[in-house]
Amino acid sequence: MASRTGRTSEAQPWHPQMTRRLAVQAGAVGLLGLGIEHLGALRAMGGPATPKGRDDRAVIYIFLSGGLSQLDSFDLKPDAPAEIRGEFRPIATRTPGLSICEHLPKLAERSGLWSLVRSLTHSSNDHSAGHHIMLSGRSDLPSGFDPTKPRPSDWPSIASIAGALCPPRNNLPPAVVLPEKLIHSTGRAIPGQFGGEMGAKHDPWFIEASPFDPTAYGAYPTYEFDHQQRPPAGAKTKRFQTPSLGLPEGFSESRLAGRLGLLATLDRQRSALENSAAAGGFDDERQGAVSLLTDRKVKQAFDVLHAPDAVLDRYGRHTFGWSLLMAKRLVEAGVKLVQVNLGNNETWDNHGNIFPHLKDKLFPPTDQAVSALLDDLNASGLLDSTLVVMAGEFGRTPKISRLAEFYKLPGRDHWGPAQSVLLAGGGVQGGRVIGSTDKIGGYPRSDPHPPENFAATIYNALGLPSNVSWRDPQDRPHFVYHGEPISALM
Questions:
Q1: Residue pLDDT, tens place only, 104-163
Q2: Residue whose C-alpha is closest to residue 396's, from 141, 100, 73
Q3: Overall pTM > 0.90
Q4: At 120, phi and psi to the nearest 5?
Q5: Which of 136, 167, 168, 336 is placed for a possible disulfide with 155 were both Cys, Cβ 3.0 to 4.6 Å?
Q6: By its UniProt entry, which InterPro entries does this protein fall under (predicted)?
Q7: How far is 180 from 177, CA to CA, in rounded Å?
Q8: What would the DSSP string read from start to end of 181-195?
Q9: In 10 A of CB 365, how many CB atoms?
Q10: Which DSSP state fits 473?
Q11: Do the Cβ atoms of 180 and 209 come closer than 8 Å?
Q12: CATH architecture under which domain 49-245+295-489 falls
């Protein structure tokens, strides 16, 4: 693949080479983590808008941290014993012969837009290892893997590879992650979501739109919950903060050279900022930062909380809805890969109370927001060029379990051997089911696919050729593909 520098498929990945010392701040959150120097490089390298075609391909990777139960969502086993099948019943979709959970009615209505892989499989039942596996697309753990923290020897995340090998468009980085990093309840960052052996400079850009709270789960504020149903300690504090791009009142060149903060009245100061930059008051990199901060298209992409009421009603006024609406707008603005973490702090880790939590707290906002995303992408014509995938780090155990000391009701434990993955758009034909599991939903019965094939499907959807690689500081090539795209989807 030709890169921005004209190199072949073994090209050094493109990314601005600079520190994060000068981070552009948007209120309490960093604007994609970009420093002023990053922005200058992005503008200089970005060039004119890319014509429609190969370079308008994009991916939205919806990640369900904690692990979605395949048996209670997309691979129900109604004829299995009660301790396997659980409480939910299947409903028919628009696709003949395809049934999914009764609590996903909107997705059932739209089955012509998506397909399922019911036989994605890997060998780990550990959260940290599972995150690393599914976020990097590598089944084998790297030497020295530490489940308690990210390490420089970790495999690079799919988002990091996309950020390195896809050229930027419209002043935006090629890959972003939102609405927050994946943080364990203990406060540690979960490995697998960073640049790893590519180096920290290739960490994806994180839009951290919510403060960390170890006790809050789900699609807050509407569907916030606690896994163990403990009494609330006080008023809910979890909130969603979308960036309001701009500079503080009374800004100066010295302040701009430091950290830029929140401006509630950006529109009122827009012309003053532009005039200051045009007058030569800032160097080239700082002018680039001001240009991005005053770009109406970029501001609109992030300002999801003030979207029209009809749009918010469709997506939902909760973090799942706001996050997927932002993902859609970022793809429209030119971002190539958006990873959306639907649920912080291993939200989908339902060791107990699984049926009420899925029915009342997790499925309603997911069904609503994902359906709205597919509708909008389909109506705008972007679904043809945008692959939407939804997966977690693993599935859940076939047999229902009970941890009475922590949970009032039963749940399911971790299960790497089988999970169901939803895919739509980007060339995927709707209404298909790839692979199957055995009668208890525990192991693939046909057409098993490892995470390497899942990752290859994403890279293929981004237009990356099968021989593409990146080179480390010692000029050694590291190939991106470790499996084959799932051809039966196309």
A1: 999 999 999 999 999 999 999 999 999 999 999 999 999 999 999 999 999 999 999 999
A2: 73
A3: no
A4: -75, 135
A5: 136
A6: Alkaline_phosphatase_core_sf, DUF1501
A7: 7
A8: --B-TTSPBPTTSS-
A9: 24
A10: T
A11: yes
A12: 3-Layer(aba) Sandwich (3.40)
